[in-house]
Fold this sequence. Notes:
Elements: H1 3-19, H2 21-25, H3 31-41, E1 45-47, H4 49-57, E2 63-66, H5 70-75, E3 82-83, H6 89-92, E4 109-112, H7 117-128, E5 134-137, H8 141-146
Parallel strand pairs: 1-5, 2-3, 2-4, 4-5
Helix pairs in contact: 3-7
Amino acid sequence: MTSRKVTFLAAALLGAAIAFPSFVAAQNYPASVKEYVANVRKQVKTIDLAGFKTVYDAKTNALILDVREPEEYAAGYIPGAVNVPRGLLEFNIWGEVGFPDKTDVNKKIYVYCKTGGRCTLAAKTLQDLGFTDVTAVVMLFEDWKKAGYPVAVAKAM
């Protein structure tokens, strides 16, 4: 390949990485991960962005759970959402559902993340822990923001 073609190809790949970071990042793991998430998704209730926006606007008493990492949450989250990172979910969800006095495993919970993968796995984990009304919000958080829907930012300490 000529140096001009290599330079063009490198520039094109860099441009794609900048324009579509989630697409490029998605290539950092084998297809088996995508297949695994797809199989888990068949085992949990899901809702898309439009459906979740309707639920959000209805101001239900549901728990909105953001399972992204704390720095992702701090950069912008859906107002009213509680951050419990997926990696700590089994241990940290309990305070959000009244443990130990009045643990409510029947509480309606909507789980979201950046792209719909982590929330799918988190929804399955919550089901496995005995929660009965869990829904994974399968959407791109970026699409929520682009639609002009509410986003809060954590205050600096």
